[in-house]
Amino acid sequence: MPNGGPDCCGNCVFNKAVQEMAHPHPDQRRRFWELSFCTLRQVKITNPFWTYCKNFHYGKSDIETMPPQQPRGGITASGLYEGYVRIPWHDAVEPEVSVPCTCLLCGRFTERGITLPLPDGVLGFCTNRHYVEWWNTQHPESCVDLGHFTPPEEYYKTREPSP
Ligand code: SF4
Ligand SMILES: [Zn+2]
User: Fold this and answer.
1) Closest-approaching ligand to the CA atom of 156
2) The domain containing residue 117 runs over which residues?
């Protein structure tokens, strides 16, 4: 089973799929994915084993006995692979990773970038770094440290050629 760390929605008590099934049994994987929904944040979780947040609580405890809680911080997704890194959702909008796009910041076209589907159109980014750089302009109150992410010049040195 793909797994981007144990502290993911796929193992969290607030995920409806975990509440109902505990684990994605091999013959019911599709049902686990269909049921995956965060009951704390009221959002669909499309990628349960690669999605995270600070409210994570392991396993199928009795949800009824859990103390009430508010969402803490935002949701993160696994970013483009440069070592495992996590990138923030844009509020309730999940970034899509490893898809073709042209970068809003630098104009680079890549077959494996990041897109963000917004009501006014889809934004594209060449790297985790440029996605987070843009994200920080939208969320100045909770800026993410850009030092965690590889600059495009370095990231593309060993990947597809520059346009
Ligand atoms: S978003 Fe957070 S609280 Fe919701 S299911 Fe995922 S890890 Fe749990
Ligand atoms: Zn870029």
Assistant:
1) 2
2) 90-155
